[in-house]
Request: fold
Amino acid sequence: MILSDNDIKEYIAAGKIKIDPLPDFESCLGPCSLDLRLGNNFKMFRPSNYNFIDVKNNYNGELMEEVIVGDDMPFIIQPREFVIAVTKETITLTPDLMGRLDGRSSLGRLGLVVHSTAARFDPGWTGKAVMEFGNLGIRPIILYAGMRICAMTFETLSSPAGVPYLSQKDHKYAGQSGAVASKITEEENISKK
Reply:
């Protein structure tokens, strides 16, 4: 069941959804979602000697650079560029609740993709929500730290997860406080033996 606006407020008040800093309900609460704001931390690909990305070898440190902007400062995403970003808010979910991230329609109409694939936040998740930006348009898009960037919906599970996210042995992104590059090379079935 997807939580309504009233349910979202009740779950936050009861501590079943923890959001820090607390949202301004008047500007961020929709009928069944909560808008989150763009954080200050970004990771983006930089020019490199590598002509490919090899999922078995960890080149992330050499392929990506971190960019930090001040509050209300601009961040420009170029056409065809891919950028990892995070929300200002840190979110914690209980084992019987999951979150789902969606882009805002107004930004989608400019060509901004807010997440490539990772829209689900598992029960027991904690950390800043990661976004995988892509600019599908033909012109640069200027974004500002602190602006409303995405919307999260919350869904209840039929029962609490038996192994919530933080209890999984391979929870690679728990507690992230900034933009984190891919950790696919840490997966047992793909990494070098």
Q: What stands out?
A: The chain has a mean pLDDT of 85. The first strand starts at residue 17 and ends at 20. The domain at 5-47+58-160 is CATH 2.70.40.10 (Deoxyuridine 5'-Triphosphate Nucleotidohydrolase; Chain A). The radius of gyration is 17 Å.
